[in-house]
Design a protein that fits this description.
The longest helix has 24 residues. Strands 1-2-5-4-3 form a five-stranded antiparallel β-sheet, covered by helices on one side. It is elongated and about 55 Å long. Strand 1 and strand 2 form a beta hairpin. By secondary structure, the protein is an alpha+beta fold. The protein has one domain. The chain contains one helix and five strands; from the N terminus they run βββββα.
Length: 78
Amino acid sequence: MGENKMKIHYDPEVDILYIVIKEGPIKDTIDINDDIFIEIAEDETIAGIEIWRASKNIAEPIATKLAEKIKKALEIKA
């Protein structure tokens, strides 16, 4: 019995991050907002997540949070 493994693809030309949770036919797509779309499989489970403007919606918040933690760690040592 095959096991589904999550895959992550990023297309830098269009700045879209796509997370494949399970492969197969897509029954529906739900728009969460202007930049996030959830793909629903035929069995009603989440098949994938598409994130547009990924650098702003994913990378920038992560980098900001990481910078805050580094700044706090440096303040504690000072």
